[in-house]
Amino acid sequence: MSPPSHFDFTEARDKFTAATKSAVDIRNCKPLTSAFSHLPGNETEKKATLDQALRGVLEEQIVKQKVNVEDFLSLIYISIDGVTEGICSATTPFLLLGDVLDCLPLDQCDKIFSFVEENVSTWKSTTFYSAGKNYLLRMCNGLNLQSQFNLDNITVFNKNEQDSTLGLQHAEVKEEGMEVEEGEMGDEDAPAPCSIPIDYNLYRKFWTLQDYFRNPVQCYDKFSWMTFLKYSDETLAVFKSFKLDDMQASKRKLEEMRTAGGDHVYFAKFLTSEKLMDLQLSDSNFRRHILLQYLILFQYLKGQVKFKSSSCVLNDDQSLWIEDTTKLVYQLLRETPPDGDKFASMVEHILNTEENWNSWKNEGCPSFVKERPAETKPIRPSRKRQAPEDFLGKGPDRKILMGNDELTRLWNLNPDNMEACKSDSREFMPSLEDFFEEAIEQADPSNMVEEEYKVVRNSNYGWRALRLLSRRSPHFFQPTNQQFKSLADYLENMVIKLAKELPKDLPSEEIKTGEEDDDENGDNLLKESNDSPSIQSKAVTNSQMDEIAAKLGSQWKTLADHLEMSEKEIRVIESDSEDVELQAKMLLVAWQDREGPQATMESLVTALNSAGFSNITEGLGET
After folding, report:
1. Pick from 467, 577, 594, 479: nearest CA to 540
2. For residue 584, is it left (φ>0), alpha (ψ between -120 and 50) or beta?
3. Where does the record place the region Disordered (predicted)?
């Protein structure tokens, strides 16, 4: 019997590498499965070796062969099949995704993210979810757990004034710096001269600011902040005084920027040559990069970051300066063509979203899903605990003691207070007959009561009469076009109407004469509404709706509220036509369709009066 062969890592890695290349070529995982089953060793050793072989093949594809994105995705698909077959670790596809995103340019990363979105169902499966959720979160959101900065991103520029060429004449700079062939740049393409002279001091201060953008913590140091404040004020003053516009910037370049879409070239580092300074100040994209750096820096300085030191706190002067400077930066962004307003609004929206994201992380990433409260069974009312003896009192009456004699007396008037509140004796509102009996008697001319002594002239009586009429009389809500000079005149008119309806033993016969005299004035629309079936009970005709719509015009929405039309119905009417008269007619038709037989002229007159269109109802009365 031969001894078991030992696991050889180098040999296994080579075989797995060859099998991986074969699997990518044929777009199938079978060569890997076969190699895995024939190699000696335990599964843990073979899985770790295959994981490394897969990453090695990916590295070779990226560095040496310069293959397409589709080949990278094929390798990741092979790794997913390997996890399903149980021959490699569940984290391997995510490690490969991370390697690809780290090495590809931005324009090709879009295809990788499309691949991630298309395979959401795979990532949610039990096999991959626990192993890969943190990897995906870090890849998609740039998760920086410790809030660290890339301190290696140092901007290199000329720090020796002796070597500077900015003090030379413009012509010399042009000859020594950059030769331009005749006809290469016309007058329209040439940048406009800067209104502020560019010297070495401005150059040095401008590029020194990049060190603060690289490491914002410096701003919390008193002396570093003073330097940052001074350099920023001078830089922003240059941007403010040297404004760009569509005529000043190159028309050709602006057109290219608008039409190129996503073909912009992205540079990870700034070009800091002194000869490019005036061109950079004339470039809108460059200016937007610098201004956006300011906004990101300010958001970090003001925000609450979980891992920020307790000493990193702004004082009131710093906070005020940041607030004022933020407004200035947004103003400069809006003034920078092309589409400055749109770009500034988009930046503000993105930064607000980022601030909400930071707040969510600082709170420990709580779940967005609200749990449904468990259905609770109705709690049975518990038996009340017996009150102590000193509260209930002593003796056969066992009165409840409320603290003083008067409260005790009031509380113990009835053993059941709720029933006492429902008692008939609690009904304090008088009937119409009882309340208006004296007023009706005084309205009788035979009693010869002078006007000044009538109860309707008493303001206190008038106020109580209005409250009673609103509760118990239908006349209070019926429309009328009569104009009353005072409350007393209105109450006298109401007394005459009530006298006709009250029992016959009350003196109402003599009062009828006064009502007839009042009707002769032609102001009693109420009588018309009671006697004229054309106004009270008949439906609104089409000609009447046309007449009302013409008078309503653009004020039809006011009537819509009193016809109880919904906001949705109003929006439908507005969208169907722009003619206000037609919109008013459509409102009345919609109301008539909804109410059916109840859409009478009486209902419409009531709505018109309550909406303040009494002039329209007067015209209807005359008609």
Report:
1. 594
2. alpha
3. 371-396, 507-540
